[in-house]
Amino acid sequence: MFKRIYLSLRWRIWYTINKSKFKQLGKKTFIHKPLSIEGKQNISVGKNVYVAYKTWLAAMPYTGFNDCKLIIGDGCRIGNFNHIYATQSIIFGNNVLTADKVYISDNLHNYEDISIPILHQPVKQIGTVTIGENSWIGENVCIMGANIGTHCVIGANSVVTKDIPDYCVAVGTPAKVIKRYCFKTNTWIKTN
After folding, report:
1. Where are the beta strands (DSSP E) in 35-175?
2. Closest CA relative to residue 79, chosen from 115, 112, 55, 110
3. What is the distance between the alpha carbons of residues 122 and 178, in angstroms, rounded to a whole number?
4. What is the pLDDT of residues 110-127, one digit of tens each?
5. Do the beta carbons of residue 125 and residue 109 sit within 8 Å?
6. Backbone phi, then psi, for 156, in 5-degree steps?
7. What residue spans of 23-122 are helical by DSSP H?
């Protein structure tokens, strides 16, 4: 009982302190001891969202897009040690679940000029990212400049560089669709 009251009070205090710092911050939302939050003015977080321990959230217009945004929909649960970095646009639909150590980015470091250390080369935009509602992103997944459809499952350790359609299970490096939901039979069907 005491723990529930303590957590509720902690959430309310955190929300009150941080509400005005974000572009939008929904009620009953809590970000637990973030590693870093950059560009809060470009980050919108829906209601009833929980972002777990040591996650890094960023929305910084390093690639020249003035309308840089990171949007996390209502009811999302973001795992521990996630790294989510937008330089143009990353959008989570409602009720997205990520496991721990997930990396999501719409950009890469340039590496083309071998006379300049990669560290000193500019950031390159590779594509916007949208994760459809009700999707689940497994442990250690990397999503780079690709879209995930509605109600998808991305298996652990997958690297997503191409779009995944709605109602699919994708695994591997690079991620490939291995199952699709069939609405005629109401079952998941293996595919190649």
Report:
1. 36-38, 43-45, 50-51, 56-59, 69-72, 77-78, 83-86, 89-92, 97-98, 103-105, 107-109, 123-125, 129-131, 136-137, 142-144, 153-154, 159-160, 168-171
2. 55
3. 36
4. 999 999 999 999 999 999
5. no
6. -50, 145
7. none
- Total-model pTM: 0.93
What CA–CA distance (Å, rounded) separates 60 from 166? 29
Element (H, E) at 7: helix 2-18
What's at 148, amino acid-wise? Answer: I
Radius of gyration of the chain (CA): 18
Give the list of residues 6+ apart from residue 52 with CB closer than 8 angstroms, or none. 32, 77, 78, 79, 80, 82, 100
Tokens, residue 94 = 């409602």
Q: Which helix (H) or strand (E) holds 188?
A: strand 187-190
| Strands laid side by side in the 97-98 sheet | 30-31, 50-51, 77-78, 97-98, 136-137, 153-154, 168-171, 176-182, 187-190
